[in-house]
Amino acid sequence: MAPKLPPQPPLQHSSTAVADGQSHGHAAPPKGILRWLLTTNHKEIGSLYLIFSLTMFFIGGIFALVVRAELFQPGLQLVEPEFFNQMTTMHGLIMVFAAVMPAFTGLANWMIPLQIGAPDMALPRLNNFSFWLLPVAFTLLLSTLFMPGGGPNFGWTFYAPLSTTYAPPSTTFFILALHIAGISSILGAINIIATILNMRAPGMRLMDMPLFVWTWLITAFLLIAVMPVLAGVITMMLMDINFGTSFFDAAGGGDPVLFQHLFWFFGHPEVYIMILPAFGIVSAIIPTFARKPLFGYASMVYATAAIALLSFLVWAHHMFIVGLPLVAELFFMYSTMLIAVPTGVKVFNWVTTLFRGSISFESPMLFSLAFVVLFTIGGFSGLMLAIAPADFQYHDTYFVVAHFHYVLVPGAIFAIMAGVYYWLPKWTGHYPNERLAQWHFWFSIIGVNLTFFPMHFAGLAGMPRRIPDYALQFADFNLLSSIGAFFFGASQLLFVLGVILCIRGGKKAPAKAWEGAVDLEWTVPSPAPLHTFETPPVFHRTSH
Amino acid sequence: MRSRWWWLIAIVLAASESQAQSNGWNMPVGVTDVSSDIYGLHMTIFWICVVIGVVVFGAMFYSLFRYRHSKGAKAAHFHEHTSVEVLWTAIPILILVGMAVPATATLKNMYDSSNAELDVMITGQQWRWRYEYLGEDVAFTSNMSTPRAQISGEEARGEHYLLEVDEPLVLPINRKVRFLMTSDDVIHSWWVPDLAVKQDTIPGFINENWVKINEPGIYRGQCAELCGIDHGFMPVVVHAVEEEEFETWLAERKEAAEQEAMGVDREWEMAELLERGESVYQAICSSCHQAEGQGAPPAFPALANNEQLLSDVDWHLDKVINGVSGAAMPAFRSTLNPVELAAVVTYTRNAWGNETGDVVQPSEVAELIAQ
C-alpha cells in the first residue's frame, strides 16, 4: 500500500508552497523508521492507518477463531470460560476500534485530499499525532491479556457493574487505552472536517463533493459528538472502580442502567460511524463499473444526513429488555423503524444506478455488489429487531450476532476491501492481480455466509450470545459457523497476498485506472506522487 | 453471486431435517398468548422483508444480467427522477406504519402486569436463580444440574445438557403470574423462549413481567445477559402444572420450609453438617472457589489452606453472611438459611486439607444474622 518513493524529483515540490508551511522539510524526508514516525504526508499516514488496521484485523480475527474453535462442538475443549470471555470482548473491541475505524480513517487520509483537490490534510502534524496514538492505545489494550486476572472479560459493551465492581484489575488500563483511542478519533475527525470545509478545489461546492467525502464529513461530526460521551462514561467507570463513586451502583444511589443509556448514546452513532463511509465507497464504485452517474446524488446526501440525525434518537433499542417504560419502548421502536426509510432510499439508488448501465464485474464491483445485497440482509434483520415485542425474543441471542456481523463484515469490511481494490492502482501504480482478487471475493462470500447465516437460526432457536458452551440442539448451526469462520479467516490471506503483490509490481495503471471513473483522484498520475495538487486543480462541474 | 441462494437453501434444508425433533430453527410459537402474538409479528415482518428482498434483489440481478458491459450494453445517463424517489420514500413509511400498529398493541399487552394472581420474585445471582413465592414463605435457589464431567466430555451428554436444574420454578397454568425481577450482583437476564419472557434483572432495581401459561409442560431457557464466567451455565427451567397440582406442591414446600426452620434450634453433629455443607458448597460456592477450594486468583481467592480464613472463624462467617463489599463475593444472609450457612462454613473449615475441627452451629449463625 505504501507508495514507492521518491516518485518525482525533489525539485518539483521544493519550489511550491505547501499547505503546512514546511516546504524546507520536504526536500529531504528523514530515512528509515524516522520517516514513518515523523511523516506529515496524508498519503504516508493513510498507508500507516491501513497497515495498522490490517494487522489488527488479523489479531481480532484470531480472537474470533479462538471463539469459533471452542464453539465448534458442545462442551469445553480448548479454553476456559474466563479466557473465552476475554476473547469475545477483545475480538469486539479490536475489530470496532482498531480495525474498522482506522481503516476508514486511512482511506479518508489517502482519498479525501485527492478527491477534493487539496495538497494535504489541513492539520498535518495533528494527523501524525492521531495515528501514532493508535499503536500506543492498542498495545496497551492487548497487554491487559497478560496481566494478573486477565484482560477485559465483560463484552465489548462493558456493561456495569460487571465491568466495574466485578471486573478484573486490568480494567483501568482498558479505560486508558480507550481514552487514547478516543482522542485519536476526535483529532482525526477535526482534521477531516477542517480539510473538507476549507481545502476544496476552487469551484467545488459541497453538493459537488464525491459521496465518500460527504459521508466522511457527516461521520466526522458524529465522531466529535459521541466520542466525548464514551470518554465520559469510561471516566465514570474509572471513578467507580478507583475513587469510591457510585455512578453505576444502586447501593450508593447510582444506576447500572444509566451506564447503558450513556454507552448506547455513544454506541448507536458509533455503528453508523462504521457504515456511513462504506456507503460513500460503494457510491463511488457502483457508478464507475456501471459506467453511469450515481442515481439520486442529492437524495444520497440527504439520506446520509437523515441517518446520522436519527442515530441520536434510537439508542435505547439496544435496551428493550432492561425495563424501560412503555412510552420509551414505543418511541424507540418507532424512531428505529424510521431509519429503514433513508437506508432503503440508498439501496434503491444503488440498484437504480445499475439499471440501464453498462456493467462489468471487476473485483471492486463484486465486493460492492455483495455489499449491497448482504448489507440489505443485515438491514432486514435490523428491521425485525426494531419490532420491540419481537426483540424480547431476539435480544441477546445469536440472531443479534448474525445481524450486526452482516452489516459489519459483508457491510463495512467488504466496502473497505472494495475501496482497497478500487484505489490500489492509484496508490501503487499497479492493478491488483484480478484473478487472485476474484478468488478472494468468492472465498470470502462463501465463508461469510457460511459463518453468519446459520447464526440467525441458532438465535431464533434460543441460543444466547457470549456463551462458551451450548445445548445440543444448537450443535449443527455452530458446526457450520465454525467451519465458515476458518474458511473466511484463511481466505483473507489471499487479500494480504494480493496487496503485497500489487505493491511489488503488476500491470501498470494509467492515471485514470478505471474506464468509468470520474472523480479528481483519477486526474493525478498513478501511482499518486507524494505531493499532489500543490496547485489547485480546476474543477469541472460534470461529475454529478 | 447467485450461489448464495443455494447455500441458503442447503442450510435451511439441513437445519430443518436435523432439528425436526427439537426447537428447530425458528422462533418457538410458545405456550402463552403473548408468545404466539410475538411469533405472529416475527413472521409478518419476516415475510415483509422477504417480499421487499425479492423485489429489490430481483431488480438488481435483472440489471446485472441484462446490462452487462461484456454483452455490449450502452449506459444511459439519467441520474434522478423525483416522483420515483418520492414514491420509494413514501411506500416504506406506509409499510412501517402498518407494522407498528400490531406491534404497539402487543407491547401494551406485555406491559400490563395488573391483576396477577401470584407474585414470584426472581433474583439473579452469579450463577443461579433464586425464586421466592411472595406471601407464601416458599423460596429456593435453582442451580444447573448438568455435571461438570459432561461439560468436560468425560461423561456422555444428556438430552437436556446445560438446560437442566436441581429445582425448577413450578408455576400453575391458566393463572396470571407476575414476576418481580432483580439481581444480587451483576445484570442477568431471565429468559424462557416458550414463555416469550426475557427481562433483565438489575441489581438495586425491580423489573416487572408476567406470564399466563396455557399448557402444562417443562419449558427451558437460560440467562441471556453476559454475567461473568458461568454465564453459559445458568439455565432456567419452568415446570408448568395444573392448578391443583400446583397447590399441592406449594403446600408441601411450605411444610418443608417449616421443618427446616425448626432444625435451626437443635444441636447438629459434625458429620451431618459436613454432608449438608458439601452439597451446598458444590451447588453455590464451587463455581468461583472451584471444586477443591483452590479458587481462581486474583478474582476468586483459594479457600484451601487460606491462612486468614482458617485462623479466624468470625471473619469467615462475616464474609459468607455479609459478603465482601466491592468484590464479587455476595452476601448470603438471605440466600441461604442458617442451617445451610453453618453447614457450608463447617465444611469449608474441614475439607481439602483444612483441618480446624471447627463446628459452627445453625443457632450461632441465626444469632449473627439477627444482630
Q: How large a portion of the residues of chain B is in β-strands, by DSSP E?
A: 15-25%
Number of E-state strands of chain A: 0
Indicate the mean pLDDT of chain A: 93
What kind of sheet is the major sheet of chain B?
Answer: 5 strands, mixed
Main-sheet strand order of chain B equals 3-2-1-5-8
| Terminal CA distance of chain A | 29 Å
Q: Any idea what the shape of chain A is? A: globular
SS-based class of chain A: mainly alpha
For the biggest sheet of chain A, the summary is: none
How much strand of chain A?
A: under 5%
Structure classification of chain B: alpha+beta
Kindly provide the radius of gyration of chain B, computed on alpha-carbon positions and rounded to a whole number of angstroms. Answer: 28 Å
Radius of gyration of chain A equals 23 Å
Q: How many DSSP E strands of chain B?
A: 10
User: Count the helices of chain B. How many?
Assistant: 10
Number of helices of chain A: 18
Quick structural gist:
The complex is a heterodimer of chains A (544) and B (371). Chain A is mainly α and 544 residues long.
